[in-house]
Amino acid sequence: LFGVSYEELLARGKTPERQIGKTGVLGCGFGAGPDAIDRVAKRDRIDLARAGVTSTALVETWRRQHPRVAGREVGRTFVDAACRTRHARRGGYWKAVERAARDAVADPSFSHLAGAEGRAVAWWAHGPDLYCTLPSGRELRYRNAGVAADPLTGRDSLQYVDARRGMLRTYGGRLVENVVQAVARDVIAHALPLLEAAGLPVVLHVHDEVV
Fold it and tell me: Residues 53, 25, 137, CA angle at the centre, nearest 5°?
């Protein structure tokens, strides 16, 4: 994001660029926009200005570097609600996943795939619920899923009912986050018995680390 080499980063140690880079990569990978980056920076007391970057520049740079996820630029800009100049994009994995989920809700008669063959996740509906079949065969379930107008924006959005939080609205980046975290869980769950069988007793595991 800053054009700094890995070796130079190691030599510098903990710098504002390193903190901002971590914030940007974690958030932007799941569709975070400038407003979300600003909120995280404020919460974590990260000074974007000190590193000479804005949240908009951070988001646009990440998306430009990851067109398969965020979509490719189409050579057109637009001004968002906060008067920031943004680049229009087409395609990308976020949109593919959201489109497959929406299509499954609209037409539950067959599965809708998002991703390359052999690595795709399948979205399908049964009754009122939306399902996502992961590469492992495990399923994510979104209860009482549907598409309805967002009262704030007026645009249609995918929604479902969460047992604790009630009706939630979601979008491509958030769905991709669900899929990525679920796949990561499947990977670590697969590794645990292999470690035990190899004579490495598992004491605990936290997030993506096994001790």
Answer: 160
